[in-house]
Every structure is written in C-alpha cells, then in structure tokens.
Amino acid sequence: MQKLSEWGMNYLNNLNLPLGSPSYRYLERICHAHLTTIPFENISKLLYFRDRQQLGFAIPPFDMFVNNYRQFHFGGTCYSLNSNLMSLLKEIGFACYHIMLGKEHIGIIVDVEGERVYVDCGAAAPFFKPVRFENDPNNVSQFGDDKVQLLRVDGEKHQYKYVRYTQGKQSGNTWEFNSKKAFELADFSHAIEKSNQPGATFMSILRCQLWQTEKDRSVSLVNNQFSIRYANGNTIKKTLTSAGEIEKVITEEFLLPKLPVAQAIDVLKELKVDIFSGK
C-alpha cells in the first residue's frame, strides 16, 4: 500500500473511504462509493467552458477535480470522471490503463489479483463493481431494468463490445474495444475537443445523475425533466418550470446543494439552448 498525496487522501475522504490495499474487494468499494457520491453531470463542463480562457484546460487536473467536488459538488462526464479516478487508482497502487470504447468513451482496465477487470464511473451506468468480463462471459451490471453487458467478440484478439439495455431494448451506442490496447488521455484529445464544441451532446443539455442505492433508487435530471427510478422498476417523473425548482431538486433530492445549477443554465442560454422549451 502506497502513501498517497494530499489530493489522493482528499479524494478518498470525498468518497468517505479509508486507504486500503489494492485488492478486488477494495476496488469494488471504490466503484460503489464513486457512483453514489460523485455525480455524473455536465454543470461543471459548462462552467469550465465558460471560463476556458482563464483555466486553460479541457479536463480538470487531479487537484482541481478533487477540490471542486468539495467546494462545488462537481463531478463530470466520462473524460473528467474516469481520467481522475484512474489517477487515484494508480496512487493507491493499482495496475491500470485506459481503453477506448468506440471512438468516444474512455474506460479503465485494472489488472488485479491476476485478472483484468473493467471499471467505469463515467457512464451514468450501474457499474457498482469491477466487471470480470474475461472470466464471466455472461456478466451483467444491473440496476432495475438498466443493464450493461461486456460481450466477447473475439477472445483471442481481446475484442469485446459494450451493450446497454433499458426495459429490454438496446439503448445508446454499441461500443467495441480491445481490452489489451492501452491509451493515454492525450489519445482522446480530438474526442474531448469535439465534446466541448457548442452543439455537442453535453453542451446542449443540462444533465445530472446520481445513484442512491441506500434508497434503492437513482435520480436523474435531463433539462427540466426530473425522474426517480427505483430498483423495482417504478419511475416517478416531474417537469420543473424554473431554475429555482431545479436548484431545489438538486439540493433536496440529489443532496448536492453546492452545484451552481443557475450558472450552468445561464451558459446554456448564451449557447442558445432553452432547457424549458421541451424540444
């Protein structure tokens, strides 16, 4: 077990976890804590875009990522979440590297206890524990009717695909990946630049999602549509009519009162996006 930097220890404090040895069990604790503590959201992305000239980065560096959760409840989308999570894992002593899924998503492979496993806290998906995709061809990561599978395409060539299903129907893109081909964050530069252009997916909506497994539910905001999805399949939906109502939901339901939602809505307005239009 390695000695962590100040920011590494602060990261674990954010997750309410003690420092542990790099084992599968400890990695599982990290995954679960991450998904139930640090939100998948683009509020930070919009504010980083607004302040891009002063900040000078597309992805927040480790210290800023850790501090901005403490100060603003910032999480991020896949590039911010998984790149900084991997920095933490490396500090703890895990052997790990990034993989590219499709030509857009960044995931993590961790070599632990003689096995390669998949870790992903940046997909708003129920990866509550590392996926043993090599040894369990029927793996399913699931919460209610939301399921993700990592399916073997060609085992000898280490080719797999990521498929997600909601209510029994495929949702989102199928992402293929090579589990042994390591990538650096710099290899995603074009995809990251593209994701920060006005009109890109997370530059044209307001998005926040968090798992609350102690309540057997997840909470989700897409523009002004708030939903609570329970593990038993029940879903509650509500249309919010003002920035104030959104702030109230983020505070009372997500329990993320520091998130500067109104500022992100203002950035979207400047980008000609009306989250209340219903379009």
Automatic annotation (TrEMBL):
<protein>
    <submittedName>
        <fullName>Arylamine N-acetyltransferase</fullName>
    </submittedName>
</protein>
<dbReference type="GO" id="GO:0016407">
    <property type="term" value="F:acetyltransferase activity"/>
</dbReference>
<dbReference type="InterPro" id="IPR038765">
    <property type="entry name" value="Papain-like_cys_pep_sf"/>
</dbReference>
<keyword id="KW-0808">Transferase</keyword>
<dbReference type="InterPro" id="IPR053710">
    <property type="entry name" value="Arylamine_NAT_domain_sf"/>
</dbReference>
<comment type="similarity">
    <text>Belongs to the arylamine N-acetyltransferase family.</text>
</comment>
<dbReference type="Pfam" id="PF00797">
    <property type="entry name" value="Acetyltransf_2"/>
</dbReference>
<dbReference type="InterPro" id="IPR001447">
    <property type="entry name" value="Arylamine_N-AcTrfase"/>
</dbReference>
